[in-house]
Give the backbone structure.
Amino acid sequence: MSSATALALGALLLALGSWALWFRAIQRVAVPRDRRGYLALMLAALALGIAAFGHGAGWLAGSAAAVAIAAACAFLATVAISRQKGGPGAFEVGRPLPDFEALGEDGAPFRLSSLGAGRPLLLKFFRGHW
Amino acid sequence: MRRWEELRAELEARDVRIVAVSSEKPEAVRAGRARHGLRATFVADPKSEAIRALGLANRGVHSGPPGVGPLAIPTTVLADAQGVVRWIDQSESYQWRSDPQRVGAALEEHLPRRTADVPA
């Protein structure tokens, strides 16, 4: 096996393996707050993929390296756009909960205040990923 | 969201009501709740009106599907029985969620268990 092929296969394994671990974490709703480990793996895959081309990868090794580079870049892009911009909005610790209107599961109007008071409340805003 | 079931005992010990607001349509919310067997009040905000009014719409790259309005910054709010906000957890990244450990610690810190549930 040529060095270019070894580098390309290493890059591919690293990139796809890291993505597999990432998807498993998403599936378990357990994405770590510290993503440096994943970033290091993807950067390593990227470096190996580029190195494979530097070592004169043929079409097969080149294809593997290209897929690895694309997968690593996709991950880096995903992390880059994940940053949220905004703030706690109308919510402030020590202040009353603001009321709001939305739709119930049946599509009928819902107001938070309709639940009444007297019980603690855990209010969760999420994006649709369960 | 579905991992909050891990907190069921802690939530029930404090009589906490859960309200979850999703950016999906009501039918998708219904299906999601049924799929995961979650016990909570689920609310739909498909046009992002509530999150805009509450100032929780993400102003960064929303990364939602094309044609969808801004999505909510993943936010969890804990209020006491008087309706006063006691804790807010907001993600810097949409990839993060308020995991059960974080929520459990907030419950422990901010909401006492009901007297009958406190071990002697």
